[in-house]
Protein 1
Amino acid sequence: MEQHVGNNKSFKGNVVIGQSGGPTAVINASVAGVYSAAKSLGVKKVYGMVHGIQGFLEKNLLSLEDYLGDGLGIELLKRTPSAFLGTCRYKLPKVEGHEEVYEKIFAVLEEYEIEAFFYVGGNDSMDTVKMLSDYAAAHGKTQRFVGVPKTIDNDLPITDHCPGYGSAAKYIATSVKEVVRDVQSTALAKPTVIILEIMGRNAGWLTAAAALAKGADCEGADAIYLPEVDFDVDAFVENIQAIRKNKNWVVVALSEGVKLPDGRFVCELGGGSDAVDAFGHKQLSGCAATLGNIVRERTGFKVRPIEFSTLQRAASHISSLTDINEAFQVGRRGMQAAADGETGVMVVMKRIQESPYLCDMDTYDIHAVANVEKTVPAQWITPDGKGLTEEYASYARPLIIGELTPFYVDGLPRHLVRAE
């Protein structure tokens, strides 16, 4: 393990936590973990950045003690989906020519007597941690910067998996089972092809979770298409036709990021938007609708495209207890790392054994993590490129185990809400 180590290991000041990028069903559990560990270590004040580093630059901070002062607040936060503090997609500029941005960040850190900065996020968020820790090291600053992993895409390197993935995988696998049950029951009356579009961009981890739906009570999806394999539209249509010869219904799952051999996203065939986010990532959607139109035109089949969209990252009512517990623990481990003097690191999870499942927490140099994507290993994809092996299932199943029942009020889950 490589890391930068700060000089001062005693906490005399405060800490701040921010959330960035796409939310998850368990991202708030990591905030609760940092807060819990900070208070047990005697940290005076725990601030939350409202809308990440963008809000921090505007000194938009809140006191987490006001919301989490007792154990009930922590438990409610763990059951609250999306980002309680609010996220952003603000990209820090390079230091050269933008020194004033960094000077302002460190001026705010000093004004609020903040000694440790925690950022809960994915690839781009870890880049923010890297840039701030590098600036601190180059300018003799003593603040510590720790990345806390979060992403439903599960595409951060080094760590075995990412908090947020297990709950999204549980939702996807459950939804696939329910869709299969629905179309199966109506197939005689109206034979249908279902095309499920699942998030994940360049990594197929989320779409792979559709494979978990297969079991004693469900035959699962008929085919699963990941962005790790070049997509052939003609072969896709032919495969659907071949399946329809044997039964009245077809369910296929595919990633929003599937690409043609020439590098174009399949969603672009439908004239999708050229819009990109602050980090230059093309905004993807409409893949299922595009392919649905192609299948309908070429075959005459009834086709129903279903885009899981926001639901797969916001469904805290079906979140994985394993995922919630691990999200909480990576937050606690991040706080401990800062207390031990570490900076410029991300918390990583290390799988110790499969059965019974055991996972440990460690830290790793942020430079090996920032802006690096981890994709599904080729050996976990079946030779025909349309499914996942049992090795993937063995990896993913432990991550979806267990449930944490929401606190219900008037029949609906109660969430912790930030005052605007």
Protein 2
Amino acid sequence: MAEYIESLERLAEQFARLEGVGKKSAMRMAFSVLELERDDVESFAKALLDAKEKIHLCPICQNLTDREQCFVCEDPQRDRSTICVVSDPKTMLAMEKVREYRGVYHVLHGVISPMNGVTPDKLKIKELLARVGEGNVEEIIVATDPTVEGEATALYLAKLLRPLGVRVTRLAYGVPVGADLEYADEVTLCRALEGRRDV
């Protein structure tokens, strides 16, 4: 049916451009928009435009914000001697939900991936080095994903940062809570052993 309604197809195509949205989900979203009142559609469109116009990078940590600085950098209670380096703003929000980390962040906006055309100069690495160069930073926690690209990025950062006299650490990875050890792969078990701690 939708193939015959050109404007509905165009709307679905726009939703399909979003990361993680497939054709079927995009079409469901398009139909959902049609069910909204006109005022709600206008509010939706305005929210999209406002987000695009007002959200920018925090000049300190490179996180997304609609203020002068992001909410973490604005907080005077945060420990500025520890910087947790993450690949994207979504990872930073996940770390914040834990409510255990009291340091600050630095968002790279990607990981090194030559196959995808992402080289170190395309990430926010020089901004991180500038922050460390200002002094007062004692530890950098590299919290990139445990993928080939995430590991490559962590090693690259460690190579750049160690000569600056800061401690470079990596998040411990291992067996998830509730998992059976017999189903864990060798790399996961190895990481779990390396990251073991006293009980």
